[in-house]
Amino acid sequence: MVATTTTERLQAALSGADFPAHRDDLVEAARDSGADEETIRALRAIPAEDYANFSEVTASVRMADAGGPDSDSDKANARRHHTHPGMAEREKEIPGNPIAEELGENRGS
Q: Do residues 44 and 31 make contact, with C-beta atoms less than 8 angstroms apart?
């Protein structure tokens, strides 16, 4: 079973964390703050990288907030705000070609 947490539990667990922080530092901060084992397991499951802020952590941690951990809106939101290099961002919104937007795709054909 995949470990999940909620935004509230994660925020309480990382209230004493200094950012940017490596995953191992975040796990240690969660232990120091007395976080539940499920939240600590969810933090251990994220990629071993440096995280600039709380938003980057929430984008990587599997959440069990309202709507379920696998709701489409949660997945889409995480992909839009996901900024870790080297990780799949194929679903991220990419701006279109400004010329095609202004003049149309089939101009002159």
A: no
Q: Is residue 28 part of a domain?
A: yes
Question: Is residue 20 domain-resident?
Answer: yes
- Asked if residue 78 is part of any domain, the answer here is yes
pLDDT grade for 66, boundaries at 50, 70 and 90 = very low
Whole-structure pTM value: 0.58
Let me know: does 35 contact 59? Beta carbons within 8 Å.
Answer: no
Q: What is the mean pLDDT of residues 24-30?
A: 94
Q: Are 47 and 82 in contact (CB under 8 A)?
A: no
Which range among 39-48, 60-69, 85-94 shows the weakest confidence by mean pLDDT?
A: 85-94
Could you tell me the residue range of the domain that residue 37 belongs to?
A: 7-103
Domains: count for the chain: 1
Which helix (H) or strand (E) segment holds residue 101: the answer is: helix 98-103
Average pLDDT on 38-51 reads 92
